[in-house]
Structures are given as structure tokens and as C-alpha cells.
């Protein structure tokens, strides 16, 4: 029954029903209800919230005129940019009290200028990409490197002139999406595409104002775009499925928050009669130097599960939206907690994040290092992606740390993150080598339920432990994290 | 490349893909234009194995020519790469 429900997008009868006017209206109604529920009740990541509303507004137009999908999305994108800057502008005007446009009528003009400026800036980038073959030879050879060199010039300017800090709010959003555009131009695949074909990918209406480009760039989306009514219906049913899954995982996460963490804001708190394990979140537990072994072990695994639920909800909402718009792309998160190898988990946990690291770090390194032995070559590529790329991505995403210039914060956050990325890179490298050995028959993979359960437990334990260095704390440095683990293991008490 | 060489290359390539495909997935019966990754025949690890195979067996220099996302997704695309390299 559940299996049949989850496969609705492959059911010919359901697809046929979804192509009718009533079917399209029902899809919009159900999708809107789910999106608005998440917007209003589910405390999803703040960066995603405005996009949920914008999707509800854009979706009926896409359903009514699927062939005009890109035009609708371009308009919706412009509105999304306006909303993004509106919020930041108002926040910048008055930190003490929530400002409104009514209290700052002249601000509207400046804000409109800012929105127009960003759209024009994106258009300028598109024009540069169109004239790729006229660019200097260095830019043609290394377009992504040159793009990021430009980003660092802007960061340098921000460090010099704090009034430019507004750039830090959207540089990470654009960095990787423009990189996909640059890559496309370098391959000569820009063809006869128009600005409207790219605007909605550069600043996606399907969300969010986040640096991971879910759905990658225009080329990837075009490859997965519905070409007829049947494909659109299938894509939309698959999108609805993800929104329903997001709803289910949100409920599970809220129940977990009440039962495990005793979160008073969870709607399940009352339902459970206030009963809770009252465990702290991992970061809090570490910062408070709590080292009870049983609580710590539970906290480590539960943190991984909670983090996975949060990422899954976020990814399902974004990919679900993309599918509703007619882009039948892969999921961002696909059953990572059932992964049987470290590399498998990494690919299933945050697919599009892994893709950015693959596209801009792994493959360029792998292709250029054919001189090395297979093991060394794989080592270089994996470390370029999982350590160097991962760290670089995080630096761009947390530019504020750099701009505020507090060394202790930077050391705590990026020092710990370096340990996490090194562990991750080592684990993935070893995991890939092992998979290669298994394929070539040099190693044997044990079969059976118990062996499978052991592999899954091993993967979860690795990521739960590695996450100790990835809590995002600006208080705990890498050695503090290590000391906490030693104290939990009873090897060395933690000094207060 | 003449027709018989084409056939031999194709057979060799399929034989190689069989060694890296997911167990139980049929490489022989799959069409030349079918995406081997989207259909679950191959996974992401297979990409690097195919690159190594094409470099070693057919002398392709990906560092020089670059890699398009669609280059390694279908049998037809891989055969085209081999053909181009042989010219």
C-alpha cells in the first residue's frame, strides 16, 4: 500500500489524472497546503521561508502555461531578489525594533535600486559568459578560478570598507551558481540560450538563499526538464511525494525535539505530557563540558539523526518545488541512514553539495593527475574535494567570521572544521579504495542481514563521531572537541 | 575506425562495464543511448573507473580535452570518445 503510494508518479492512471485541469488544480492545492504548512508551522530554515510562499504564487502560472515556465520563473526570481534585499535592507535600517516600509518610506526607492542593480549585475555576468571566447586567455583557461579570484577581490574590498558588507549576504549564494554558468560557457554550451534561461538558476525561486546550488545550473535543469504534459505530470507527482515526505520528516523531527530534547516550542511537548529525556543538543553538551558517557553516546547518534532529518526536509522542499515546476531532478537526500559505506552516505546525505565538490574540485584534480598511481590519484582528488573544497566552501558561507575578524572564533570554527574535513576525506578515500577492491575481486563483501547491519552501524558511528568537529561552535576549538571525546571515553577528565 | 574494429571496441567496452556495473544489472541488453547512471547500472565510483579505463586502454587525455558531463553517461557517448581519440 505505502509502496504503491510512493510510486504514484509511475502509475499511468495517476499520471493521466494529473494532466487534466482538475488534476492540475488538485496538485496546486495540495502542494500549496504543504508549502504553506512548512512556512507557518514547521520552523524550517529561515533562508527557505520566503521561497515557500513564492512557490505557491508561481506554481499556478507554471501549471496554466507550462511552456512559459522560464518567463514565470524569471519574474518570480526578480520578486525573490526584491524580497531578499527588502528584508536585509529593513534589518539594516533598524536593529533595535522591527522596521516596516511604512516607517521608512524613502527606503523603498533605495531598495528598488538595489534589486535592479543585482538583476543588472546578473545580466552583465550573463553577457560576459556569452562573450567567453573574447575573454583573456587566462580567463578562458581557468574560468572558475578567475571567477573566484574576482570574489576574493570583493572580499578584500569588504575587509577594507565595512559599508560593502551587504555583499557578504549574497556572494555565497551566487558563487557556485555563477561557477556553473562559467563552466557552461567554457564548454561552449551556452548556445542560443537567453538571460531568462539562466536568471532563475542564478537566484533560484525554488529556494533558497543558501550557497548549495540544489538543481545545479541551467544545463543540468534543462536535461531534466519536462518536454510534454505526461512528463510534467510525472515530475509534479514526484514533487508532491517529496513534499509529503518533508511533512512526515518534519513531524518526526518535532516529535524527536519534544521526546529527546524537551523542546518547549515543539507541538508534541504537550502530547507527550512533558515527558522527555531532556538531553542537550551536542554543541551545548560539549560547550557545557557534560561528559556522562551514556548521555554522550546517545547525544552523538541522535544529533546525526536530527541533523539528517533537518537536511532531508530542506532538500525535499527544494527538490519537490523544482519537480513541481517541471524539473525532474534527483533528490538532495536519499536514505543516508541506510548507507553501507562512507562514500555512499556522503553521496546520499547532501547530493548537490557533493556534486559541487565533485564538479569543481574532485574531477579537475582527478583529470589532471593521471601521472600518479591509482591510489595516489584518488587520494589527491578526494582530499581536493572533501578537505580543500569543503573548507573553501565553508569559508565563503561563513564570510561573517572573516569580516568580524575575531581570531578565536575563526580558530574554533575553522580549526574544528579542518579536523572534520580531514576525517571525512580520509574515510571517503579508504571507502572508495575498498569499493574498488571489492569490484575487482580483491576484497570480499560479506552478505546477509547481520553483515549489512554492521556496515550501517559502522557508517553511522563514523559520521556521528566526525560530527563532534562540525557543530559550528565558535567557542570550542579542535583540541577542545578532542578533549571532550577523551573525557567521554573516560581516558582523561575534562578541565573546566 | 572500420566496422569490425567498431564492433570489437564495443564488445570490449561492454565487457569492461560488466565488471564495474551493479550486481544484477544487465549491461548487454541496454540500449546505446540509455543513461547508464540514471538507470542505476553504474554509480559515481564507476565514472573514475571508466576514465582510468579510457586513458589506459585507448590513450584518451582528459586533462587536455576536458570532460563534459554527458561524455560518460551512455555507451554511445563513450564509443564516440574512443572514435575521436583514434583519429
What does this entry look like structurally?
- The complex is a heterodimer of chains A (496) and B (87).
- Chain A is an all-alpha fold and 496 residues long.
- Chain A contains 22 helices and no strands.
- In chain A, 70% of the residues lie in helices and 0% in strands.
- Chain A is globular.
- Chain A starts with a helix and ends in an 8-residue tail after the last helix.
- Chain B is an all-alpha fold and 87 residues long.
- In chain B, 56% of the residues lie in helices and 0% in strands.
- Chain B has four helices and no strands.
- The longest helix of chain B is centred in the first third of the chain and has 18 residues.
- The mean pLDDT of chain B is 84.
- At the A-B interface, helix 17, helix 18 and helix 20 of A face helix 2 of B.
Order of helices and strands of chain A: HHHHHHHHHHHHHHHHHHHHHH
Q: Which structural class is indicated by helix and strand composition of chain A?
A: mainly alpha
How many H/I helices of chain B? 4
Shape of chain A: globular
Query: β content of chain B, as a range?
Result: under 5%
List unreliable stretches of 5+ residues of chain A. 94-98
Q: How is this fold's topology laid out?
A:
The complex is a heterodimer of chains A (496) and B (87).
Chain A: H1 2-6, H2 12-19, H3 21-41, H4 49-64, H5 69-93, H6 107-130, H7 137-141, H8 143-160, H9 167-186, H10 195-202, H11 218-223, H12 229-259, H13 268-271, H14 282-287, H15 293-324, H16 342-349, H17 351-368, H18 374-397, H19 399-404, H20 407-440, H21 449-466, H22 478-488
Helix pairs in contact in A: 2-12, 3-4, 3-12, 4-5, 5-6, 5-10, 6-9, 6-10, 8-9, 12-15, 15-21, 17-18, 18-20
Chain B: H1 3-20, H2 44-58, H3 62-65, H4 75-86
